[in-house]
Structure formats: structure tokens, C-alpha cells
User: What shape does this take?
Amino acid sequence: ASAAESSGGATATRRVLMFPLPFQGHLNPMLQLADVLHARGLRVTIFHAAFNAPDPERYPAGYRFVPVGAGVPTADLVPTGSNADFAGAVLRINERLQAPFQDSLRAVLEEDEEGAAVCLVLDSNLRGMQVVADRLGVPTLVLRTAGAACLVAFMAFPALCDKGLLPPQGNQYHSQLNMPLDDLQPLRVRDMVFSTTSPHETISTCLECIVESVRCSSGVIFSTFCDLEDVELQKVNDSVGVPVYAIGPLHKISSGPQSSLLAPDRTCLDWLDKQEDESVLFVSFGSLASMDKEELMETALGLANSRIPFLWVIRHDLLHGSEKVGLPDGFEEAVQGTGMVVSWAPQQEVLGHQAVGGFWTHNGWNSTLESISEGVPMLCRPHFADQMINARYVQEVWKIGFELEGKLERGEIERNVRNLLCQEVGGEMRRRAKDLKDKATRCIKKGGSSQTRVDLLVNFITSL
Ligand code: UDP
Assistant: This one.
């Protein structure tokens, strides 16, 4: 029997509405969740911004895509470059898409048969859209695309500001940065400086909206799993007052189409086939993080000097501004055979390849979880948002990687890369990462914690 039949056909005509934030790291988990619900017999309508739009052609019957806000100016909605104001962009997206979304939602509700649309699952950054759904009587669920520890930190943010710990400032600035936060161990003040390029007020408002979206929802969904964030999930449970569904790693529980906005260069998989097991360092900083020319140069030389085989993703916009990426003279000859550069990789497959032995990452939550799911230890170089929190957990809690701190410098890079790939310390981290991978694998099997919670979530959605 199909999933729809086995649940008594209750899901067959039901439609879940979804609205992801239009960034790669947010689209991926939302579309993975869409696949999980679709596989259980629910139909899915995806509202999406007209920019960074998913490709409807990749999705089977039962999906509908509704662009929102075609024609609204988008230049300041896509944060790029050294002064990228991510928090500001999120607030502007809410402001600008709210009215068009109201029109689109109303139209969809009118077209669908009465009661078919059961709820709206939205990214927790889209509080503005939640207000619209409330107004039109549609219950909401919120998807957090970061870990539970991050939400715990966001909830604690206002109190830390009241205590004068955030934002760190004045002549205490440097000593304050390393101050441990006892209630949020292992975090320090510096791990909660979410951005140096968005104004403090903007960050505060943004975090407030996220927490509010969770508290005003009918439930919150996380791409994490109980064995990974047991304590933090308990804290969330104790304080949000709505049901909590930890159903990750979502990319492993879903088998749907890839929602990549850029075309991955699959030739790197052939190159990986030729490398020895666990010998290659994969280097990728996600879809938004950027660096300056000097950092790029030091990275290139550090990698080349380490003599460790590497696969490096240099996105077209990795360099601040629109500068063209220029690698050091002689770099390509120097690393011929030992290194490969691509502009976008099939990251999940790369991390799952037996040749990959380490991941130099910016610790976006998806990248962190994808690495954990494949048992790959990490060299952490967080840039902004929740990345510092994730890196801290990788190093201090799960002990499956370590942070590359301070200014990027070729000698330090070489030393750290070699530690991860060829020293005992890296080996120990790899063993622990493999243990976590086993736990992740267990939780998505029948009867596992995440799979069980998917059942609960589907029952809950169909009861709404
Ligand atoms: N990604 C990819 N190919 C690349 C680099 C990144 O497919 O070459 C994917 C990666 O697998 C992850 C997402 O892009 O799912 C990035 O999300 P993450 O949360 O790690 O970071 P963000 O881009 O949001 O900073």
C-alpha cells in the first residue's frame, strides 16, 4: 500500500503550503522536507521569491510552484560581498514580499477546494508571511534550517544584550569576546556576534522575529537528530510552548530532486575515483561566504604547500565585490594532479565519496550536517550567522574537528590541513565522526528517532 493508502487516504487530497527563504542553504532543507511530505501522499504548493527560484521542471506531479513578488526590486535582497547585510536583507524580503504573498495566498486558497490546504510551513526567517497566514486563517509550522543549539542561543540573545555583554564594545572589546557564556556552554561571547556587517539593531530585530515565528507557530521542525542535540532539543522543548519535530538529517531522509541553484561540476567525482581512500581535503564555503584577494592567495598557497590532495570550490562570487578570481602564478602547475578546482560541486556526493578524508568548511548548518552524515571530520572557518555556533559544537561537543582561527596564513593552513588529514589527532576525530554517522544512519531507519517523528509530524499535519 502507498503511504497515502496506509494512512487511510487522509493525506490524498491534502495540500501543504510551503515558503522557503530564497537562499541555497534554506531552499535545500525546505525542498527536502517537501519531498518527505510528498512521499507520504501530501500534495505540495511551494510559494517562492521570484529570484533564486527553484526549478519546477525537476519536480513530479503533486507539486505546484507559485512565484511571489515578480517585479519587486531585488538588488538589495541578495547579500553579497564584504559588507553583506544578511539580517537587513531578511527584513527587506519580509517587507517587500508580504503584500504580494497575501494576494498569492488568497488566490491559492480560493482555487483549492475548501479545506484542502492544511497548513503553511515557512522558513522561520519569514515572520512577515506568517502574519499574513494568520490573517487568512491558515495554521503555520516553522522550519528552522539551523541546529537546535542556534535557536537556544537566539532565545538567550536579548538577555545577553540587557546584561551589556552584547554587542561587545569599548576598551573591554577583546577580553569580552572570549568570555564563556555559562548558560550556553560551550559558547563564548564571540560566537554570538552573528555579523560584523549588519547593525546590531537589525540583528536584534531579525532574531526576535525568528523566535516569535516559532512561538506563534503550531510546531517547529528541525533538520537535526536527537543523538546529536539531545540537550539543546530538550531546552527548546521546555521553552517554545509548541511541538518540536527533530527529523534530520533531512537530506538523508528525503530522496527528492536536488534543489541546487548552480549546476554542479560532476567531473570532480571522476577525479575523486582516482584518489586514495580518505586522502582528499574537500574545501567549500557554502553559497554566501566570501573572502578577499589576500585570503584567497593564502588559501591557495597553504593548500598547495600541504601537498594534500584537495578539491576546492571557488564560486564565481567567492571574492568580495565582483573581482575576478585570480589564483597565484604557477598555482595550477604546482598542484597539477594533486588538486582540483570547481565552481560548484555536488557536495553531498563529494562528502560521501570514499576518497574524501576531511572537509574545510564555513560550517553552514547544511554543510555541517552533511559532513556529520558521512563521517567526515572538519576544519572549521566560520564566517557569520550560526556558523560560529556550529564550529564550536564541532570542536568542543562532538570533537570531530577544530577551528582555524586568526588571520588566514599559508603556514597555519598547511599545518592545520596536515593535522586533519595525516596526524593522529585527525584520525581520532574521523573515528568519532564515523560514530556520529552511524547514529545519524540509525535515526532515519524505521523506528529511529527522526523517522518516528516524521510519522508524528504527518499525523499532526493531517489533523490540522
Ligand atoms: N553546496 C553545494 N555545492 C557546493 C557548495 C555548497 O551543493 O559547491 C550546498 C551544500 O551541500 C549545502 C548548501 O549548498 O546544502 C549550503 O548550505 P549551508 O547551510 O552549508 O551554507 P550557506 O550557503 O547557507 O552559507
Residues 23-25, 28, 260, 264, 284, 286-289, 313, 344-345, 347-348, 364-367, 370 surround uridine-5'-diphosphate (CB under 6 Å). Residues 1-8 have pLDDT under 50 and may be disordered. The chain has 18 helices and 13 strands. The radius of gyration is 22 Å.
